[in-house]
Write a structure and sequence with these properties.
Length: 228
């Protein structure tokens, strides 16, 4: 009879010990790593957006286009384009595609600067060009092979975000592979729900829209070809 209270106290002590370990140990590690990653993406995005804006302005002026003329061709407002050129706005991936199309270049031409004449066998994660859209879609451009007309990127879609509000078309062909999560890809009005490990391939000339309707982040590996 006298041993029962001691046993209860011991069990309660163990429960409290487990509770303290479970509540205190993971938080600083996970929170610190996540905060550092977010800060790194924010800094890289700011730099990339500024470079994209300069590149768009250079291409527009090289073609002798005014903002209004580029707006008419791309379907975006002059004020929006002005903000993008000054690095003050984060365009969606769809907006970058239509801007590039209006300028007669590939979207990757807006993300990559300089002549990458020396081919690399390995591209490190730290070397990827990163841009985060206002809708929190993060695009990591891993490889831009202009000679072969292909770009490879890892795209991350936050819940309820996507490449564009409305279906778009542009030149080329694309392959999408889902690394994590559930992604909806609409092609010519038909919606295809992709799970982890699924692949989709289609001509970029077909009207398409990529969206994450789920509550979890989606990660994909995307291959864009300049031609069909």
């Amino acid at each position: 009879m006298s041993s029962s209270p001691k046993r209860k106290t011991s069990l309660r002590g163990k429960r409290e010990e487990r509770s303290e370990l479970g509540s205190s140990r993971p938080v600083p590690l996970g929170g610190g790593a996540e905060a550092a990653a977010s800060e790194e993406i924010a800094e890289t995005t700011a730099s990339t957006l500024a470079a994209i804006g300069v590149r768009i302005r250079e291409l527009r002026q090289l073609r002798g286009l005014k903002l209004q003329e580029l707006a008419d061709t791309s379907g975006l407002s002059p004020s929006m384009l002005s903000l993008v050129e000054r690095g003050r706005a984060s365009p969606s991936i769809g907006s970058l595609i239509v801007i590039a199309s209006a300028l007669g270049v590939a979207m990757s031409d807006l993300l990559v600067n300089g002549d990458d004449s020396e081919e690399k066998i390995v591209v490190r994660a730290s070397e990827a060009r990163i841009v985060e859209t206002a809708q929190h879609v993060v695009r990591r451009l891993l490889r831009e092979d202009r000679a072969r007309g292909v770009s490879v990127a890892v795209n991350e879609y936050a819940p309820h975000t996507g490449s564009a509000e409305h279906p778009i078309t542009h030149d080329g062909f694309e392959y999408g592979f889902v690394l994590e999560g559930e992604l909806t890809v609409e092609v010519d009005g038909s919606k295809h729900v992709l799970q982890q490990g699924d692949l989709i391939a289609y001509s970029s000339r077909r009207r398409h829209k990529i969206w994450n309707h789920a509550r979890k982040k989606v990660r994909t590996l995307w291959f864009n070809l300049d031609r069909e």
